[in-house]
Design goal:
homodimer, Isopropylmalate Dehydrogenase, 14% strand, 11 strands, 12 helices, alpha/beta
């Protein structure tokens, strides 16, 4: 029997309406089970209702701007905490939330627990690269400060994720820095470079600059959560700004407007590929379960994609692959083999 | 008598041809003196020659990929070192180079010296924001690791630069972080936030995210040189990628090609504004002289703009304004006043 994906019905700027609608669409389109987690009365009030989906009742909601640690500690009956518990208790195969990112991480970490040997879970965000497979950026914000050894684990986990999620046989892993030379950057980067260069079972291509994230030269970009989050948001801001400026210049004259109408069909595949709703969300790697973090403004379509990816990752046993890649040190592995 | 701007004729991917041509154009267009620094025979060999510009002979060249520290120490007769000496010795008012960035910084720092009280010079890069004044990002790469007090000085210097360079009376200063809350980010960011919040003579608007760099919500974005360089290059890569993808979709069909031709005039002001050649280059703030760092691929047009900005900054006494803003602590200032 296929376990359902638990969707946090209360999380996100457009919750519960878009989330519940997305969950319903996902179940219908994917022919895979979905369970909603949240306030039954709020879920029922959504246009179209649950559409027959099961609901795990949770009376509390952790707000988008609430302190994550406090929220999770105090609101034990919140939709986020209950969704993570459903995965822990084997009632759900995975969780999806477009809610408070910090609280999603904290719920998953506290309820599902860390994979053995994982120092810190990381947020892996797929950056869509039109015409190519996405680039996986991690850590995209879970850990503002990192130790070199954590970056090695991020690289191992990111590599497994890029393989299972995008079918890249040997993902090229780059370490984000301010020049390709191993001597450049911060002490963190220099030490992580040494660890990555000495690591086996991974295709480390060296240090990379921010300009290659959106290109087909690297598959996994490893960095600390501060730099990763700044890079991600800088990229989002740049895309949004440029698209806005282009659209504005398209309406500069009647002639331009008419020409723009001809061009829109040519531009729409590009816009679709860059649309964050189509990536299926970011994933928290290193916890003992599949946890998808959708962006706060997720539409119903974003939830459908997140549920699809969640089911895929469960079917491909992503968590087992991560456990194998990181959880055991070489010494432990050889002990296990000989024992 | 107006002192000339010293242009490093040997620095840049397109040196010496584009650089010498740019220097010649600058002198003619701006009606301001320019002196070329480099190998006389290489300069003379450029199509069009010096056009009568004075040349300061320098027999050596620090290559683009050469170690900056070693280059500056060993090549005492390099064009970069000689250009910085010309400013120090009062033979030139400012220096401009599109060469090795690290070596440009080292030459300026070693030959011109630091302004009194400045802990570390920083690279201030204007990010063009079409439809608005540019955002000044600093440090864009001079100091991979920073102390909180340095970030306060970067804010003070960036503020003065935004005022003198772009005429912004009270520049809005933001501290780059991964959320607007003062509690978010690294210890560096949290400590710098406290210093900035307590500083007078500056309009600190709090922590800002990467998405606002390319917008009209902030004038000066302060960060360490690692994060700043990653943000800058991520932005460059995103712009380049998106522009490439758009141009590609414009040639998807004959119809699209025809429509694109109609739109190009509407798009070209945007492209011009985003063109790094039109910004006049980055500036090294905190050394005792005007030093402009142009990007490596600078065209003749980029050099014209850099020379124009260099003369403007000299005329506006930027260095004196920086000295006043940073060089003296409040205690020293009050001592000077009462003394």
């Amino acid at each position: 029997m296929t376990l359902p994906v638990a969707v946090d019905a209360m999380g996100g700027d457009r919750a519960p309406a878009e989330i519940v609608t997305g969950a319903r669409l996902a179940a219908a389109e994917l022919q895979r089970p979905v369970v909603l987690v949240g306030r039954p009365e709020a879920i029922d009030a959504v246009d179209g209702g649950t559409g027959g989906l099961e609901v795990i009742a949770a009376t509390e909601v952790i707000a988008m701007d609430e302190d994550p640690g406090q929220g999770v500690r105090r609101k034990k009956d919140s939709s986020l905490v209950r969704a993570a518990e459903a995965v822990r208790d084997g009632r759900a195969a995975a969780m999806v939330s477009a809610g408070n990112t910090g609280a999603t991480m904290a719920s998953a970490l506290l309820r599902m627990g860390r994979l053995p040997g994982v120092a810190r879970p990381a947020i892996a965000t797929p950056i869509p690269v039109p015409g190519s497979t996405p680039t996986v950026l991690l850590d995209a914000g879970a850990n503002a400060e990192c130790a070199p050894a954590w970056l090695l684990q991020f690289a191992q986990m990111g590599s497994v994720f890029a393989r299972e999620r995008f079918g890249i046989a040997e993902p090229r892993v780059g370490l984000l820095s301010i020049g390709e030379e191993p001597t450049k950057g911060t002490p963190l980067v220099r030490e992580a470079h040494e660890l990555l260069a000495g690591a086996s079972g991974m295709r480390f291509i060296g240090n990379v600059e921010g300009r290659v994230i959106l290109s087909d030269t690297v598959d996994v970009v490893v960095t600390d959560g501060f730099t990763g989050n700044v890079a991600l948001k800088t990229m989002e801001g740049t895309l949004r700004f440029l698209v806005g400026a282009i659209l504005e210049s398209f309406s500069a004259s009647e002639e331009a407007k008419a020409a723009a109408e001809v061009l829109l069909p040519a531009l729409s595949p590009l816009a679709d590929e860059l649309d964050p709703d189509s990536t299926g969300g970011a994933m928290l790697l290193g916890v003992d379960g599949v946890c998808i973090i959708s962006h706060g403004s997720s539409s119903a379509r974003a939830i459908v994609n997140a549920v699809r990816v969640a089911h895929e990752m469960v079917e491909r046993s992503l968590v087992d692959a991560l456990r194998d890649a990181v959880g055991r040190s070489p010494a432990e592995r050889s002990r296990l083999r000989s024992g």
